[in-house]
Amino acid sequence: MNPAGHPDVKPYDALLVLSFGGPEKQEDVVPFLENVTRGRGIPRERLEQVGEHYFLFGGKSPINDQNRALIAALEKDLADQGIDLPIYFGNRNWDPYLADALAKMAADGVERAAVFATSAYSSWSSCRQYRENLWDAVEQVEGAPRLDKLRQYYNHPGFIEPAVDACLAALAQLPDGGDRARLVFVTHSIPTEMAETSGSLDAEGQPRGAYVRQHRSAVDEVARRVREATGRAHRHDLVYCSRSGAPSTPWLEPDVNDHLEELATDGVGGVVLVPIGFVSDHMEVIYDLDTEARATAERLGLEVVRAATAGTDPRFVAMIRELVLERAAAERGEDPARPTVGSMPPGPDLCGAGCCPNPRGPRPALCGRDS
């Protein structure tokens, strides 16, 4: 507690919400995709084909509005707790760009900020690349504040508990309350090599492969809690969506659509699609699941309900505040509690040496011992 009796966020004088970004109108789509794929030599014609996903929704990704809603909910949560901590918003690939956010923070006199990334798991694309983006942005902005990226939160109660309730609500929408339904947990596919090198050796000398291990921990914990709540043991699977890249490059499988085909062949009557890899209903959810996977299920005669993402669930919002307070206490030399559930320990504040290496070669990154 600070002298006023409120939770102490020092040494932080701001919070930065860091996300992927997305286009907000038709003419933004291809330039946005050029930003996402910069350095990969993908022709514009191919980007226009990929952009069809966005054009189906008027060229607007929902991700920026969802982040603004999250920030508004977080501002209220902080105010209700008596915490005065301004929140800034920066993206990797679209306006508001990260460097612009840092420039505003510098102009406002921010000296040190905690960084919350809207990605819960460890891999190059879901963690270290954000750290590389932070490095690049700091290099561009004179007087940029010191930035501390908060730990991964895939196993935090504030992430898991909303997923459990979302599963229960979805099961209730199926015939017979989803008595015989299959829980199909879905996350973003990544190249298998990236998955295998995700994370680093921990204190017990456990191997890498953190991306899949972390997902399986979250999936098993949600399924266990659903079993406790319903008294029924639903079979469950971890599958993937949003594969991209060259067909010759192995990516994590099975794809959600292929898996639905198998379930239909096996006579499964109902499916709950659980977007366990995502924190809000952005494009991978509304296209890959709500549009593409739903069309596959309808063709197969499968009854499918999609569980909600955490979004602005008050427990998820409170989790962000708790992560800031936890890291602030650690930076002050204290030994804070680090809430976790499931089979994995809490992630470290600082990434280990060689953690989640860039597949295209070494790059400097902020917020790690190997930076």
From TrEMBL:
**What keywords is this UniProt entry annotated with?**
Cytoplasm, Heme biosynthesis, Iron, Lyase, Metal-binding, Porphyrin biosynthesis
InterPro entries in alphabetical order: Ferrochelatase (IPR001015), Ferrochelatase_C (IPR033644), Ferrochelatase_N (IPR033659)
Q: What is its main location?
A: cytoplasm
Q: What CDD domains would the database entry show?
A: Ferrochelatase_C, Ferrochelatase_N
Which EC number applies? 4.99.1.9
Any coiled-coil ranges, and where?
Answer: none
Q: Which GO terms describe its biological process?
A: heme biosynthetic process
- Which amino acids does the record list as binding Fe(2+)? 188, 284
Its Gene Ontology cellular component terms are: cytoplasm
Q: Which SUPFAM superfamilies match?
A: Chelatase (SSF53800)
Catalytic activity field: Fe-coproporphyrin III + 2 H(+) = coproporphyrin III + Fe(2+)
Q: Where does Fe-coproporphyrin III bind?
A: 61, 130
Q: Where is this chain's protein located in or outside the cell?
A: Cytoplasm
Pathway assignment: Porphyrin-containing compound metabolism; protoheme biosynthesis
One GO MF term: metal ion binding
Q: Which domain of life is it from?
A: Bacteria
Q: Which Gene3D superfamilies match?
A: 3.40.50.1400
Q: Which Pfam families match?
A: Ferrochelatase
Function summary: Involved in coproporphyrin-dependent heme b biosynthesis. Catalyzes the insertion of ferrous iron into coproporphyrin III to form Fe-coproporphyrin III.
Q: Which family does it belong to?
A: Belongs to the ferrochelatase family.
Protein name in the entry: Coproporphyrin III ferrochelatase
Record gene name: cpfC
